[in-house]
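Q: Hi! First time doing this. I have a protein sequence and I read that you can turn it into a structure. Is that right? Here it is:
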Amino acid sequence: MTEYNYDLTVIGGGPGGYVAAIRGAQRGMRVALVEKDQLGGVCLNWGCIPTKTLLRSAEIHHLLKSASAFGLRASDIGVDWSSVVERSRQVASQLSKGVAHLMKKNKIDVVTGHARLSSETSLSISFADGGTQILTSKNIIVATGARPRDLQGIATGRKRIWNYRQAMTVEKLPSSLLVVGSGAIGIEFASLFAELGVAVTVVEVEKRAIPNEDEEVSSFARAQFEKRGIRFLTDSRVIAINEREASVEVVIESPSGNVNEVFDSALVAVGVIANSDSLGLDEVGVKLNGTSVQTDEWGQTNIPSIWAIGDVAGGPWLAHKASHEAVAAVDRIAGARDGHPINRENIPGCTYSFPQIASVGLTEKQAIEAGYDIRRGNFPFAGNGKALALGEAEGFVKTIVDNATGEILGVHMVGPEVTELIHSFVLARELEATEEELAATIFPHPTLSEALHESVLAAAGKALHI
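A: Yes, that's right. Below is the predicted 3D structure, encoded as structure tokens:
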């Protein structure tokens, strides 16, 4: 029998990779994790965590400006941007060290270098000092994530033309900012910079902003963003950006013709591209779907010993999706009977903007197009006591129900802390709870969660507080 260095080797130390390594160790495997940069990956170091830290500073800034509404006085409110950035880096560093501790605790060998497949069960590791090493492994999980996609002919990484990574560490706040793309990343940065006093314009190629959300949510959210000073140009595209010494000159194609505008800086947030290159995947015969690695529902590729999870295996490009794929893949490798693949229809989406947006399941349009006879229930946060007490009563919860079965087809929220509320409906859908069962559930008072209950009641025509 062939002797392998490891039972499982994971390439990439992000939320998919390090969770896969831990799960492998829990299953009694000898595990190696290969990471060429920082443990925690983009999410922990340059994505999910530091952006939320920055947004928290912006949220506090907003509360301080609104102090008089709460009977308080605050003066001389300013922004120390360098300190805001420093705090976000400290939080990211703390969590990265935490991942390192988890690797040590679970006796996982961490190898710092670039991995490339040399066969179906072996990898060549290149180190910064020029050295190399060959590792053999019964199973290999590719969890290398994704990187920002550039607009055609417009490269980021320059002084005034940024991707999301640069936007988190710029030396000073711009006076004006163009954000290209109104997905989660673009909208979060638009919210952040607008709250801190930057004049923000968002360009979106689709006919509506935040196009992946339910139409009612995206329309309401856009109106709220505009109240906060964000300008939107939808059904438009950036066709040229020229960087100057003190500005960027932009040509925007719109329904009324081309528009020339000048901004201090520009942020390109038009999606990501899988990090599937430079891994030797094609050389060992792993099939790709575009740049994404093609897998089955468990994460297994066409090569039985090679697996792929997270962003490199395709969207939705979410950390929680990657972590759950990691567990499913490793459990499958271990032959565990209690393992199961993720239900992609129950992956929640969250945008941590002002206001927040969260959703799971079908939009109203998708449900109708799928042939469902639906009922919908909307409940405004204006009718929720806790939201009024917080001074954040703008927004609503929308529930879409199958009229025939009572199944919760989709839930869409916009408003205070909805990213912390959406899990209730994710759990309900996972357990196949019906409208009737949710209506009979007791929600604590006073909480924002009562709006979820009322939206279900509204779908049945039984709402109590509207």
